[in-house]
Specification:
single chain, 331 residues, alpha+beta, Ribosomal Protein S5, domain 2, Alpha-Beta Plaits, 2 domains, 8-stranded mixed sheet, 4-stranded antiparallel sheet, globular
């Protein structure tokens, strides 16, 4: 049996650096993601862009680079009782690494989904998201929350995920039809393990006043953003985006001059609102625009700043796209 699995990246409409303190987030899964075509095997053997990862079926072995995420997911699943069935396959992605769009979370999810499938090991979406979050901490030592993995697994077409990261209570919020979501990659690369991400969590837990102020205000902004979306109040949404970016820049200090410049460029190009999104220290800016103006806003933003960009829709979450029984040659 050969199967193709897919997991999307995400963009977070509101609620950055709130997930690891059990706060509120409002992400959408996007059409950019990671695909894995694989079949059962004795070992885990994966290839991506010419780079290979070779591990035992339970995830043990020498793992480096992106292979650390693969190994950690397999090890976490083994501890839950997943049978030691290996996986042989090829990874392909149109989701850029280090752009603040949840690429590591999508990798963990697509690998976790495949490992569960080949071993007939059944896990619910939320439980798999928790496995993948633990794997990120285990694999690279980043004390992240569950935002990326939950968005990748629980995404819903046309809707944002309103998630309480403390209780895991959730509901989906319909996005206004006239609202277009734009993502602009600043071109400034980062990794959470090499940036100040872990420092910010340590400072928050130590009671740093400005870090605490950001988290408290950002949680309220998530609630207010849900309300603005449900009322189709785009001016309110614009103000919330500006407040969030200012807080991430000044109180949480995770923006950069490059990200600030992309936000300014998007607003000058006619965006309704713009803010950095993700962990910061580089990555991408999220902007919203009227659907009829989206193409011009994106083009204008890229002419002023930014490396590449996309108009994205709210996508469905991770899926098994296709299965083929090789013995029969049928899907």
């Amino acid at each position: 049996m050969t199967a193709t699995f897919w997991a999307p990246g995400r963009v977070n409409l509101m609620g950055d650096h709130t997930d690891y303190s059990g706060g509120l987030v409002l992400p959408v899964a996007i059409h950019l993601g990671i695909e894995l075509t694989a079949r059962p095997a004795e070992r885990i053997s994966l290839v991506s862009d010419g780079e290979a990862v070779e591990l035992s079926a339970d995830g043990s072995g020498d793992a480096r680079g992106w292979g650390r995420y693969v190994a950690a997911v397999a090890l976490e699943l083994a501890e839950l009782g997943r049978p030691a069935v290996g996986l042989e396959g090829v990874l392909a992605a149109d989701l850029p690494r280090g752009a603040g769009l949840g690429s590591s979370g999508a990798l963990e999810v697509v690998v976790g989904l495949a490992l569960c499938c080949v071993a007939d090991f059944d896990l619910g979406q939320v439980e798999l998201a928790q496995v993948c979050r633990r794997a990120e901490q285990r694999g690279v030592g980043v004390p992240s929350g569950i935002l990326d993995q939950a968005a990748s697994l629980l995404g819903c077409a046309g809707k944002a995920l309103f998630l309480d990261c403390g209780t895991l209570e959730r509901r989906w919020v319909e996005l206004p039809r006239r609202l277009a979501i734009l993502v602009v990659d600043s071109g400034e690369r980062h990794s959470h393990e090499a940036s100040g991400y872990s420092d910010r969590r340590t400072e928050l837990e130590a009671g740093h006043p400005r870090r605490l102020r950001h988290v408290a205000a950002e949680n309220e902004r998530v609630r207010d953003t849900v309300d603005a979306l449900e009322r189709n109040d785009l001016p309110a949404l614009a103000a919330l985006f500006l407040e969030s970016h200012a807080s991430l820049r000044d109180d949480y200090e995770v923006s950069t001059p490059k990200l600030d410049a992309v936000v300014t460029a998007a607003l000058e190009a006619g965006a309704i609102g713009a803010r950095m999104t993700g962990g910061g220290f580089g990555g991408s800016v999220l902007a919203v625009a009227d659907r009829d103006d989206a193409g011009a806003v994106l083009q204008g933003t890229l002419e002023r700043a930014g490396a590449q960009g996309w108009i994205v829709g709210a996508s469905a979450g991770a899926v098994i796209r296709r299965r083929t029984d090789s013995r029969r040659g049928r899907a």
